[in-house]
């Protein structure tokens, strides 16, 4: 009964914080099969996500040591002291839809300034990013990759190695980033608190 209520609560929370989400699975694991306000592990699988105007193909989330604190007197519930490990897949279409959104216009403008051209879309091919101009042409001589360190993702020109920071958040740890043939996979970790 409690696990069904928690599952329903997680589904509702995800539907509130995401503009769009298709939840495929929610799995709750407690080592002693009892709920005492702490969930050892919570797994979430979802696809077709739009969160904060960022389009994501699919996502796997593992929350560890999830602590629920219910406050009935002020009708708020809290999730605290949890760590999330998130694996996400970004396709070319996800990236293009995200960059075409007004919320991310300044990022697109920064990229255009960095690559010295206006672009209509991006293409992911051969473990690189190519920028396609509005006339449909791409400069195949210049490709870009993504590099990461602890809290930053940078767009890197493969020829001159110049870098542009496109993501920097001290609350998120980038654990891995790699190119597949037609998409980018990203693994991040973060402490999670909802109130």
Report on this structure.
With about 200 residues, this protein is an alpha+beta fold. The chain is built from three helices and eleven strands. The two termini are about 25 Å apart. The mean pLDDT is about 90. Helices cover about 20% and strands about 55% of the residues. Strands 1-2-3-4-11-10 form a six-stranded antiparallel β-sheet. The chain has a three-stranded antiparallel β-sheet with strand order 7-8-9, with helices on one face. A two-stranded antiparallel sheet has the order 5-6.
Any key phrases for this structure?
195 residues, alpha+beta, elongated, 6-stranded antiparallel sheet
Please sum up the structure shown.
The protein has three helices and eleven strands, in the order αββββααβββββββ.
